[in-house]
Amino acid sequence: MSCLRVICARVHSNLVDRCLHPQSHGSQLKWLAAPNPRTYIGSGKVAEIKTAIHALDVETVIFDDELSAGQLRNLEKAFGGDVRVCDRTALILDIFNQRAATHEASLQVALAQMEYQLPRLTKMWTHLERQAGGKVKGMGEKQIEVDKRILRTQISALRKELESVRQHRKQYRNRRLSVPVPVVSLVGYTNAGKSTLLNQLTGADVLAEDQLFATLDPTTRRVQINNGMEFLLTDTVGFIQKLPTMLVAAFRATLEEISESSLLVHVVDISHPLASQQIDAVNKVLGDLDVESIPKLMVWNKVDKADDPETVKIEAEEKGAICLSAIYGDGLEQFCFAVQAKLKDAMVPVEACIPYDKGELLNTIHQVGMVEATEYTENGTVIRGHVPLPLARLLTPMRQRVTGTH
């Protein structure tokens, strides 16, 4: 048996938090043994919602689940007038469309919207008369067939353009990987505070609003810790429960940034009443992306908004999580130390003799690695410590030189 939430709202701008946060008020709950194939909900609930629509002057009704084309059509007929019926996927796509600020994000959202619309063209048109076929005998093709063909052509063109974007982003990543700076990706539920954390650590000016999906494009900035070590910090698109599959597919180029990371930082809004469900939702998406092998660090953000911050901090310590308040900067130093420790676990121990004429290489080792001991010899500077694997490969000849001296 499943629970369906139906939200009635007068203005579309109020729908975001009401639909996507289950604890919201102004919604109706309906327990179903199985969805009604015609209207998803039963006839009694349809009548009840229709009464509420007229009483409250409702403009939009949102179902917190995906509806078929037939269910959407039947519900709109039943509710009558100009009432819009919207399912969860359509709402998320609408929000993404409003947040898309770059050409790449616009392409990704447009592709997802078209793929959502394609199967819903069926029986949703009143102009089903056939077009004249010119000199061709017969009635020609139905308007809906023309519309579908046009939509498929547009989808194909968008996929090609996005593949070009994906290849460009891949080339950029390859160039970035040639300089062995560890990449740390911020992941988490939407509105958990990832962009705020990036801004605090790097001084970046990434949009950080108290709203869902404020960031759709990955943003990467360099972070330097007090001891001189550096890493790249990437802000990624926020996740959500029941994230539509078409969105995951459309944002593949963006989400591939996550798969190239040295460390994933899972940012959680610990003040949210459904924080545990949000953690599960993020873990599910990460599982779908097949990134389980990448080390992870759990960060509990917005601890300042928790009912009992001290108890939250004690619980976080027991679970190995880092507590912080990104907006006020509390806990950032502890966060950087934790990132450094996690990155060290993913590094390779090295002992190498760096010639004195390779000063840039020695500087890189100090920036991206962890130098534990330094010794100046006749042949060069001997360092012992941990470095990322790509840098360890560059140091292979010099490591052999050290081995030969013992």
Automatic annotation (TrEMBL):
<keyword id="KW-0342">GTP-binding</keyword>
<keyword id="KW-0479">Metal-binding</keyword>
<dbReference type="InterPro" id="IPR027417">
    <property type="entry name" value="P-loop_NTPase"/>
</dbReference>
<keyword id="KW-0175">Coiled coil</keyword>
<feature type="binding site">
    <location>
        <begin position="213"/>
        <end position="217"/>
    </location>
    <ligand>
        <name>GTP</name>
    </ligand>
</feature>
<feature type="binding site">
    <location>
        <position position="215"/>
    </location>
    <ligand>
        <name>Mg(2+)</name>
    </ligand>
</feature>
<feature type="coiled-coil region">
    <location>
        <begin position="148"/>
        <end position="175"/>
    </location>
</feature>
<dbReference type="GO" id="GO:0046872">
    <property type="term" value="F:metal ion binding"/>
</dbReference>
<dbReference type="InterPro" id="IPR025121">
    <property type="entry name" value="GTPase_HflX_N"/>
</dbReference>
<keyword id="KW-0460">Magnesium</keyword>
<feature type="domain" description="Hflx-type G">
    <location>
        <begin position="182"/>
        <end position="347"/>
    </location>
</feature>
<dbReference type="InterPro" id="IPR030394">
    <property type="entry name" value="G_HFLX_dom"/>
</dbReference>
<dbReference type="InterPro" id="IPR005225">
    <property type="entry name" value="Small_GTP-bd"/>
</dbReference>
<dbReference type="GO" id="GO:0005525">
    <property type="term" value="F:GTP binding"/>
</dbReference>
<dbReference type="GO" id="GO:0005737">
    <property type="term" value="C:cytoplasm"/>
</dbReference>
<dbReference type="InterPro" id="IPR042108">
    <property type="entry name" value="GTPase_HflX_N_sf"/>
</dbReference>
<dbReference type="InterPro" id="IPR016496">
    <property type="entry name" value="GTPase_HflX"/>
</dbReference>
<dbReference type="Pfam" id="PF13167">
    <property type="entry name" value="GTP-bdg_N"/>
</dbReference>
<feature type="binding site">
    <location>
        <begin position="301"/>
        <end position="304"/>
    </location>
    <ligand>
        <name>GTP</name>
    </ligand>
</feature>
<protein>
    <submittedName>
        <fullName>GTPase HflX isoform X2</fullName>
    </submittedName>
</protein>
<dbReference type="Pfam" id="PF01926">
    <property type="entry name" value="MMR_HSR1"/>
</dbReference>
<dbReference type="Pfam" id="PF16360">
    <property type="entry name" value="GTP-bdg_M"/>
</dbReference>
<dbReference type="InterPro" id="IPR006073">
    <property type="entry name" value="GTP-bd"/>
</dbReference>
<feature type="binding site">
    <location>
        <begin position="235"/>
        <end position="238"/>
    </location>
    <ligand>
        <name>GTP</name>
    </ligand>
</feature>
<keyword id="KW-0547">Nucleotide-binding</keyword>
<feature type="binding site">
    <location>
        <begin position="188"/>
        <end position="195"/>
    </location>
    <ligand>
        <name>GTP</name>
    </ligand>
</feature>
<dbReference type="InterPro" id="IPR032305">
    <property type="entry name" value="GTP-bd_M"/>
</dbReference>
<keyword id="KW-0963">Cytoplasm</keyword>
<dbReference type="GO" id="GO:0043022">
    <property type="term" value="F:ribosome binding"/>
</dbReference>
<feature type="binding site">
    <location>
        <position position="195"/>
    </location>
    <ligand>
        <name>Mg(2+)</name>
    </ligand>
</feature>
